[in-house]
């Protein structure tokens, strides 16, 4: 367990930042806060299982455009017409919950075709077709907004094209809202943990001006920062990293330094841990040598499964001050994850930076009584 002095230092940091933020606050009304979660279409976890009282927004993941027509051909998506049924069930369930929740349809995802998005973004005719289809589908199935998850633009030109896409999208959404006299659809995007991609390929910056002008906000994927591919253990969503700038805080600072308005920033947190197989049972700190992923699908383990791992005799849980993260290990395996404490600290930090809110990836990985999600929602309310 963490020593009380570790905890105290982290809390002091969070509270100091909070005090600074409160002093500089003005009387302008803040935009609606965001407490969001993604939902992966999944028969074993139907939309009715979601405790909507804990969230303000929910993202339905995912849908992808057809690679020839550039439209969201809902009838032809995998699982055929069941996709349409799944949308309708989702939006109707979310609307009729005791706590209704705003729904967005998320386009793309980590496994979607990045070159297809590159082509669509580069060509104004293809952009128009794609945008038109996204608005038609969002309206037809009762979503309140559209989220774009392109992982990731590969070049500076593709980043520029992404900015053009956002502008054209915003104009189409505004025109549609005026002509139908309905509130405009929300437009958001899921983005890299930092404002620039710098770890591989051509260095490239997101189109920050276009994001400020055209998007309601961005979901910053402040996670998956370290994994078994590093060959050493590391905090997958650590606040700090003494060895590099690959950390949640560096990433969020890079967005703010690049000129992105804090109210456009929503911080992502994982409801899962990443696992490593230790090379030497005697070396089990952050940065310990490892030999590939540990248990779980691709070295990923749901939070509720991490709790089961932690219950085994011989497992130790450590709150690490240097990375602002929690990990647990036994003689064979090491898991970096988020717990009630790290989530509370992150939310204090996000509020100190005046961010718009937070989101989780993904529904179904918390405990059955939504322990982490509840803690996050309570922590944000304290101020
Ligand atoms: C379009 O996608 C389908 C399904 O993934 C694939 O089989 C096909 O080769 C793709 N066609 C083009 C032109 O990219
Ligand atoms: C991805 O999209 C590109 C550009 O449209 C296309 O050439 C390629 O075949 C697509 N790949 C798949 C797997 O569909
Ligand atoms: C843009 O896409 C359209 C089809 O959507 C195609 O007819 C046109 O040739 C493309 N333009 C360029 C410059 O690739
Ligand atoms: C999409 O295109 C169709 C056909 O041109 C048009 O009737 C419709 O109004 C467009 N929808 C939006 C949201 O722009
Ligand atoms: C991890 O180890 C593999 C196999 O030895 C090696 O190919 C790879 O470059 C290493 N990765 C890093 C980040 O050091
Ligand atoms: C991290 O450092 C590299 C190299 O100095 C720089 O290119 C990159 O933008 C920095 N990233 C962040 C998130 O600070
Ligand atoms: C470590 O945890 C794994 C996964 O739960 C378990 O199979 C293994 O027996 C544990 N090892 C030790 C030495 O406790």
UniProtKB/TrEMBL annotation:
One of its GO terms (biological process) is chitin catabolic process. It comes from the Eukaryota. One of its GO terms (molecular function) is chitin binding. It holds the Pfam family Glyco_hydro_18. PROSITE patterns: GH18_1, GH18_2. Residues 33-383 form the GH18 domain. Belongs to the glycosyl hydrolase 18 family. Chitinase class V subfamily. GO terms for cellular component: extracellular region. Keywords: Glycoprotein, Glycosidase, Hydrolase, Signal. SUPFAM superfamilies: (Trans)glycosidases, Chitinase insertion domain. This is GH18 domain-containing protein. InterPro entries: Chitinase_II/V-like_cat (IPR011583), Chitinase_insertion_sf (IPR029070), GH (IPR017853), Glyco_hydro18_cat (IPR001223), Glyco_hydro_18_chit_AS (IPR001579), Glycosyl_Hydrlase_18 (IPR050314). It comes from Vicia faba. Residues 1-26 form the signal peptide. SMART domains: Glyco_18.
């Amino acid at each position: 367990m963490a020593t009380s002095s570790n905890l105290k230092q982290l809390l002091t940091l969070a509270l100091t930042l909070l005090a600074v933020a409160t002093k500089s606050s003005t009387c302008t009304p803040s935009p609606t806060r965001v407490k969001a979660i993604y939902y992966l279409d999944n028969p074993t976890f139907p939309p009715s299982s979601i405790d909507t009282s804990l969230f303000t927004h929910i993202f339905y993941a995912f849908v992808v455009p057809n690679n020839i027509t550039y439209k969201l051909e809902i009838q032809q998506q995998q699982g055929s017409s069941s996709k349409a049924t799944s949308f309708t069930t989702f939006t109707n369930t979310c609307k009729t919950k005791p706590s209704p929740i705003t729904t967005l349809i998320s386009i793309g995802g980590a496994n979607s075709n990045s070159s297809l998005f590159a082509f669509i973004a580069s060509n104004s005719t293809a952009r128009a077709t794609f945008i038109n289809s996204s608005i038609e589908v969002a309206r037809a199935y009762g979503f309140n907004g559209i989220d774009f998850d392109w992982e990731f633009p590969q070049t500076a030109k593709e980043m520029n094209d992404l900015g053009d896409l956002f502008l054209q999208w915003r104009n189409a959404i505004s025109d549609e809202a005026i002509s139908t006299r309905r509130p405009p659809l929300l437009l958001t995007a899921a983005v890299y943990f930092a404002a620039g991609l710098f770890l591989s390929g051509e260095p490239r910056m997101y189109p920050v001006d276009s994001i400020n002008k055209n998007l309601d906000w961005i979901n910053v994927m402040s996670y998956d920062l370290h994994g078994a591919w590093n060959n050493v253990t590391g905090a997958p969503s650590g606040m700090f990293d003494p060895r590099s700038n690959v950390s949640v805080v560096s990433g969020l600072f890079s967005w703010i330094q690049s000129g992105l308005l804090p109210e456009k920033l929503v911080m992502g947190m994982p409801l899962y841990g990443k696992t490593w197989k230790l090379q030497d049972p005697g070396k089990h700190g952050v940065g310990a040598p490892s030999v590939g992923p540990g248990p779980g699908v691709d070295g990923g383990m749901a939070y509720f499964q991490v709790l089961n791992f932690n219950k085994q005799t011989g497992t130790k849980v450590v709150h690490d001050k240097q990375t602002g993260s929690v990990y647990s290990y036994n003689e064979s395996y090491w898991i970096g994850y988020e717990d009630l404490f790290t989530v509370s600290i992150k939310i204090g930090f996000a509020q100190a930076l005046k961010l718009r809110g937070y989101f989780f990836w993904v529904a179904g990985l918390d405990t059955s009584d939504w322990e982490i999600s509840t803690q996050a929602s309570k922590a944000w309310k304290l101020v």
